[in-house]
Write a structure and sequence with these properties.
Elements lengths: L4 E3 L6 E3 L18 H50 L1 H26 L3 H29 L21 H21 L8
Antiparallel strand pairs: 1-2
Helix pairs in contact: 1-2, 2-3, 2-4, 3-4
Length: 193
């Protein structure tokens, strides 16, 4: 039985029915694309993929640099604020460290099987954290009304130093957020039976 054939639209050679491309010239019999055209398209897609990948790397590097720059600017602002009002923040930073120490001590007590002592320690940490959060909130609200920040240095009392009110308030709110997060991480009190 002879196989059915048809003529290639490109080169005119006979090709078996069912073939996808002409074995003589490489033309795709369904689409009419030549072998060279298919190669060019494939290379174009690869180049496009390379450009896209390269663009993603560049975008990632730019985003990383922007984050680093923003972090550096924030650090400079924090240092400036802390430098202008060290008296305002020293006690609260120390209190946050003591709350962390209490929580760590409670964790050690709980791990050693002293649940009642751990609950007492956690309760102290929760109470101190709650008080700290309230104090930080009140101080941030008071800063709105504080006259020590003034664009006119003559309005300040002798020996009084102007400070960055907005930066100070932002730093207080950040400390408050850290204290709230730490409070949420302190285990709840167990019900003694």
């Amino acid at each position: 039985m002879a196989k059915a054939t048809l003529k290639c639209p490109n080169c005119g050679q006979s090709v078996e029915v069912g073939e996808v491309e002409c074995p003589h010239c490489g033309v795709n019999l369904k689409t009419g694309e030549s072998y060279e055209e298919r190669i060019k398209k494939a290379k174009g897609k690869a180049r496009h993929r390379e450009r896209l990948t390269g663009g993603l790397y560049v975008a990632g590097a730019v985003a990383f640099c922007l984050c680093m720059f923003a972090g550096h600017q924030y650090q400079k602002k924090v240092e400036k604020v802390l430098g202008s009002r060290p008296d305002l923040f020293a006690g609260w930073i120390e209190e946050m460290q003591q709350i962390r120490d209490l929580t760590t001590a409670g964790d050690r007590l709980a791990a050693s099987g002293q649940g009642a002592s751990a609950d007492v320690t956690y309760a102290q940490a929760r109470e101190r954290a709650t008080t700290l959060i309230q104090e930080l909130g009140k101080t941030a609200d008071r800063i709105k009304l504080d006259d020590t920040y003034s664009p006119n240095p003559r309005a300040l009392a002798p020996g009084q130093v102007a400070y960055d009110k907005r930066g100070t308030k932002r730093l207080l709110n950040n400390l408050k957020a850290k204290a709230e997060f730490h409070l949420s991480q302190i285990p709840p009190a167990e019900i003694a039976e």
